[in-house]
Amino acid sequence: MPHIVNFRLFLPFHTLKTKTKALPFSTLVDILCSHLHQSNGSVENSLSMVKPKLDSQSIIQVLNTCPPQLGVRFFVWAGFQSGYRHSSYMYTKASNLLRIHHNPQIIRDVIESYEAEGSLVTVNMFREVLKLCKEARLADMALWVLRKMEDTFNLHADTVMYNLVIRLCCKKGDIETALKLTSEMSSNDLCPDLITYMAIVEGFSNAGRSEEAYSVLKVMRLHGCSPNLVILSAILDGFCRSGSMERALELLDEMEKGGVCTPNVVTYTSVIQSFCKRGQWKEALDILDRMKAFGCHANHVTVFTLVESLCAGGHVEQAYGLFDKFVVEHGVSYGDFYSSLVISLMRIKKLEEAVKLFKEMLAGDARLDTLASSLLLKELCMKDRILDGFYLLEAIENKGCLSSIDSDIYSILLIGLCQRSHLKEATKLAKIMLKKSVLLRPPHKYAAIDILIKSGEKDLVNQLTGIHKKEL
Question: According to the record, where are the PPR repeats (predicted)?
């Protein structure tokens, strides 16, 4: 039986009267820290006297000022206070601030302090502790916490808590422990769900045990849990990664005929990618045709997967030849197809061909891809072709179809133009930056400003630096 600690008052009466009101930020943090450090007995009882209106910033400030063990206890307590719940970001932040991954003993110390003090501990508190273990990727500690809550505190974990520990064990590669926990759930009248089975499937697949991952489907159906597309796709991906392409195609056939969990573009693209990695382009193209016959259309990821693989394998002409298959048959846009080609050509060091193709896109009706534009401009800068980069950027801007080229590229081009005395082009670029509210980035900022001022563009500089002031 858990014990309730003695409840003691730590604040004078006039302070208690205002506790339920919203306190100033610094005052709230100071009061919480004071109760953490001065509590005689239960930290949780002392904190609960404050009845604070918590937010993420005040919690972070408290964590920054207290020792790790107290920090964990405070964080756990805060997680189920009225009007506040931790976000996923907060678990990450707390784990990093308290360095839980580097010092897992903190978790053990906290649980043992609950036991030593005879604290009233709830399932919610253990759930918060387990979530910190999850964030710090502490499989062994999470398992210890699960056992401790049952053996020492006589509390029973729910499905969510079991799933958390099972997933951690699977990610660690300890599949056998994960399977034991799954069986244990059934013994405790808890039903393994899709999340449970997904963790097991991923564990088997990551360990290269793809047939055992497939066998999970039978277990699921016996327990009345129907596999969904995510689980089937994970098993199929496991077959692909282990090189069992024949089994992957058999499962794909099952999915196509099953009628419930039919394959989607991600499923087909995964198989195409696996064939491409093995240089089996004919088989990859067969899957593309099979995909079309099933009524599923390729997306930009499918396009890039095939185009990039063919180019890397020295089959550039064959990559160009996929235009009709993707654009006409699958309805992929001109821009997506040719952008994939531009990036693929750059990756095999065919920069001139990539630039030529990109200019043809600019002259036509293709909608330009932001990633391809940014990568091409960056490559020209790296090759010290600053003027070429500027004229290409100017043409892109004149086309008026892009809004999010990497802002660093503008700064690199501007300082490059200034250093090479291309002041006319530098002024044009500065005006483009001003129009688009693009910030000058260090380390290029001050050198570019000096050169522009010396060239008589002080007003332009004032406007550019004004953008910075507005952003601050």
Answer: 158-192, 193-227, 228-262, 264-298
